[in-house]
Fold this protein.
Amino acid sequence: MSSQQRLALLGPHNLDADGMDAFAAALSAACKAGDVAAVILRIAATDERGLTARVKQIAPITQETGAALVVACPGFTGDLVSVATRGGADGVHVDKPRDLKDLRDRLRDGRILGAGGLETKHGAMEAGEAGIDYLMVGGVYPDGVAPEAETVLARAEWWVEIFETPCVAVAAAADEIGPLAATGAEFVGLESGLWLAEPDAVARAQAVLAGQAA
């Protein structure tokens, strides 16, 4: 794994069919503006066919720039692994996961399993032991609430110091990018409210990471 820090982009929660075209256009521009390693697509729950269609719309955009596409769908009770696979995504992301072992067993051939929303160190450690490919700290929850920036920073520092499993440390505001990058987290995530609202946010975040590496 490269020691160079890279960006991850978080889509808005509950992205539905009506919002897909605008999101796809914004994402295409954003993925070309920096070294985006991954996109976490957080789509609204519907039937598997509808979800698969949304994933298929986004997958070519990330594939064009080499970013991994990871699918999240809180509240969906169907087969998210099947949706991701049939849609051409690279893996799935789950918040506050309960049964990571089953997901890990089904996500083979290099497909990604990511976890976030874990509010205790014990829960994070259990996820790491279950074989996740990354731990995401920070980020807005589906109800619109986000953990305090200081909490996210402290959790990222703790994880990076102890564990080899990569960390995605999520910034909800521009002034959080530098401190999170300074933790040594492998990936700095940009919350949707940050990069979708500011067209040059990805380029500026990339400049911050480049400054950390200098």
Observations:
- The radius of gyration is 16 Å.
- The chain has nine helices and eight strands.
